[in-house]
Design a protein that fits this description.
By secondary structure, this protein is mainly β. It contains no helices and 10 strands. Strands 2, 4, 5, 8, 9 and 10 form a 6-stranded mixed beta sheet that branches. A 4-stranded antiparallel beta sheet has the order 1-3-7-6, with no helix packed on it. Strand 6 and strand 7 form a beta hairpin. It is globular.
Amino acid sequence: VQLQASGGGLVQAGGSLRLSCAASGRTFSSYNMAWFRQAPGKEREFVAAISWSGARTPYADSVRGRFTISRDNAKKTMYLQMNSLKPEDTAVYYCAVEGVDDSTGTYYYTPSSNSIQYDYWGQGTLVTVSS
């Protein structure tokens, strides 16, 4: 699986951006995906995830109600709509594909917030929110 993240940029606080993650390779509609972010000097953190069907979408508390994750399986693309952006949202945003449950060989019912469970990563796109 190859992932290409895009859509980052500079925006003022209160503004919006939409990130995209285009995938190629394996069947896009069969795996769970997620967005993570890493701010300067901080560890990578979970933002949001989406199950293969789009039915389950866990969010980090810090973004719930402001960010919306979605996917278009026909276009092999995942999105992150970010509204009401804050300076603390400044980070490099990464998209990722979750691995399978080794005990069953299938994808997890609900995608994980733990980066260790993600096997494929995009290159990241920088989001800068000015105050």
